[in-house]
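1st attempt posting a full record on here, be nice pls
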Amino acid sequence: MILEIKNYIKISNSIDEILKKSPFKMKYIIEKSGISEPTFFRKMKEKKFLPEELLKIAEIIEPEEHSKDDILKAIQEGIEDAKKGRIHEHTEVMNEAKERLARKKNEYLLDK
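the predicted structure (as tokens):
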């Protein structure tokens, strides 16, 4: 846990340099972060981004890492589900999907 905290402090203290080296324009990062521009620059100057804000910025400037983490998490969850017997046969899933699609189609047609 100490290593993670040290890494967080290091990132927090060098976020301005990290953002300057990013291939993305600052305006794009600010827009996608959901933080107002004045607040973003103040937080960057004071090095006071919240952990959640740094995570959001990291997901913006390193989207492949974010996707990779999501994929690895989904694979791990799938392995755990299989170990615990929480699986469905392909035909069962397909039939259920077809039924849901048919219901949605009927709802759509009835609304017209």
